[in-house]
Amino acid sequence: MKNILLLLLALLTLACTSSVNSQPETEKPTNIIFLIGDGMGLSAVST
Question: Three-state DSSP class for 29?
């Protein structure tokens, strides 16, 4: 019984370790466009 618990504990410990990110780093966006609509007051946005 103790061997099974130790095995489960070891497997849980190995499962919780962080893995290396295999995805390449993406480029940051060069331009960000922020649109503000005309007449977008608090009453129009909150409905």
Answer: coil
